[in-house]
Amino acid sequence: MVTKRRRVGLLFGNNPQWIGGTYYMLNLVSALCTLPDDQQPVLIILTNTPEEFGMMKGTGYPYLEQLQEVVHYSFTDRIINKFSRTLTGKNWINKKYKDDQFDFVFPFYNSYSISSITKRLYWIPDFQVNYYPQFFSSSEKDARIQNNLQIAESSYPVVFSSDDSRNDFYKFYPINQKDRKTYVMRFAVSHPDYQSLDKKTLNAKFGIDGSYFFCPNQFWIHKNQVLVLKALGELKRKGMNMLVVFTGKENDPRNPEYFAQLKAMASELSIESNIRFLGFIDRKEQLKLMEGSLAVIQPSLFEGWSTVVEDAKAMNQYVILSDIPVHREQMVENVSFFDPHKETELAQRMVEIWNIPIEKKKSDYQLNIRKFATDFLDILNTTPCN
Fold first, then answer.
1. Closest CA to 146 of 124, 171, 164
2. Which pTM was predicted?
3. Contact (Cβ atoms closer than 8 angstroms) between residue 352 and residue 362
4. Distances (CA, A) of 92 to 56, 70, 77, 87
5. pLDDT (tens place) for every residue of the chain, 386 residues total
6. Using H for helix, E for strand and C for coil, what is the string for the chain?
7. 241 near 271, Cβ under 8 Å?
């Protein structure tokens, strides 16, 4: 007997202000490609643009369908509603997606067109707003906390990317926990083919000469690039000239002055020749630069589950990593930790690797990718929203 293929709605958008969220969904679909054919669900991509659906098709996943995230109203529907609003102030035609179209929708968020769906699976990436409220505007802070509170007050299952995040959920929202289903699904990355790029050509393109460290993060204040500049300044005062290459979008909507402050600090510390700000570059080029570096520096003050760390793990690259709980959970090999508030510790880790390159341990990262897929499948098969 042929088993009916499951149908999962995936809400997807390419948000340039949060590229990590875009990569998360693309990596999930890429991971599902590793499942046996008879276990692969139909993925109904709820997105409003053909370009975004094209990004999903680029994963090569064989069972994709597109559904407009916003329900379509015909010309007749719009005329009727215009007439009804004139008479009654309300629309007579209100369209929403129904449960029978999906086994569940992930990652669910509150939107009118899907508000009638009860087969919902939430995802909370992290609780940065609870630890660093000063990094958010008051309106965004309130919106995030209210969203998390609504999820906590519901009975719907929730996915987290780490034990650390799930523990924070229990800590900050200790309500309605008795019968709630929560899951930890640690994502893994699937890389495009960057090996075909030529290292020398790429380095020449970006003005990189000799050995360097690599720090790829969007320029958000909690990513803590400021500490890297301070470490470089300390090293420079001691007569040690090292190079750090930075990539990532150079705009933090919550703190728009942040990148300008970094450039001013670089000038004050006289380390302009010790840094390269490359901006947001092609994904393959970013990965090739990461592979060619002495080590990756990830100085972040807070993460849910770092894509940078997963990128490094996938290529067995060494990481100088800020000592926060989730990073301890995420990486146990090819790593040295430092206090993210102490530039002296970061500088010391850089010196250690600059003087004596680290021998990197090899691991089979494909196991992580398959685990990402099977964890999602287990949730699909066990979640109470079925």
1. 124
2. 0.87
3. no
4. 35, 18, 9, 10
5. 446 888 999 988 777 767 788 889 999 999 999 999 999 999 999 887 888 899 999 999 999 998 865 544 444 445 444 444 455 554 443 445 666 788 888 998 766 456 677 888 999 999 999 999 999 999 999 999 999 999 999 888 999 999 999 999 999 998 877 778 999 999 999 999 999 999 999 999 999 999 999 999 999 999 999 999 999 999 999 999 999 999 999 988 888 999 999 999 999 999 999 999 999 999 999 999 999 999 999 999 999 999 999 999 999 999 999 999 999 999 999 999 999 999 999 999 999 999 887 889 999 999 999 999 999 999 988 875 54
6. CCCCCCEEEEECCCCCCCHHHHHHHHHHHHHHCCCCHHHCCEEEEECCCHHHHHHHHCCCCCCEEEECCCCCCCHHHHHHHHHHHHHHCCCCCCCCCCHHHCCEEECCCCCHHHCCCCCECEECCCCHHHHCHHHCCHHHHHHHHHHHHHHHHCCCCEEECCHHHHHHHHHHCCCCCCCCCEEECCCCCCCCCCCCCCHHHHHHHCCCCCCCEEEECCCCHHHCHHHHHHHHHHHHHCCCCCCEEEECCCCCCCCCCHHHHHHHHHHHCCCHHHEEECCCCCHHHHHHHHHHCCCEEECCCCCCCCHHHHHHHHCCCCEEEECCHHHHHHCCCCEEEECCCCHHHHHHHHHHHHHCCCCCCCCCCHHHHHHHHHHHHHHHHHCCCC
7. no
Evaluate whether 7-188+369-382 and 199-355 have a shared fold: yes
CATH 3.40.50 for domain 7-188+369-382: yes
**Rounded Cα distance, 44 and 12, in Å:** 10
- CB burial of 290-309 (b: ≥16 within 10 Å; e: otherwise) equals bbbbbbbbbbbbbbbbbbbb
> 199-355 sits in which CATH class?
alpha beta
- Domain residue ranges in the chain: 7-188+369-382, 199-355
* 40, two tokens: 């692969």
Instruction: Judge contact between 266 and 230, C-beta under 8 A.
Output: no
Report the distance separating Cα 96 and Cα 274, nearest Å. 55
